[in-house]
Amino acid sequence: MSDPVAYVSTYRIKPGKFDEYKRFYDQLAKIVEENEPRLTAFLTFANDDFTEITNVHVFADSATLDSHMDVLGEKMRLLPGDVSAVMRHLEPVRIEVFGTPRGKAAEMDKGLEDSGVPFSWKHRFLGGFTQPK
Q: What is the CATH number of domain 5-122?
């Protein structure tokens, strides 16, 4: 088994786009829950005035993250090279990555980082655990 991978990503919600984003996110969360039993955590939090959100996504390992990327592509038509569906609602503030994404996730991260989104990386997993469902 490979090391876990986690993302903590913060986005500004574009003015007037919260309700539209919330509908998009509700659909996304439903698809993820129905199709990704190995995903450890898929959480989103908003600030008090609903102008900023932070996602906390935890994957048991790189294979689980790769599967997640496949589900997003197949069910939501979200592809690593095209995140325009998400960016209709959001502007990236920062993305923190814990662990080492591979495959399509690494491709998506590189594209976002190359476009100027601030990234921080902590690649070295020192230990810990998650509880099974």
A: 3.30.70.100
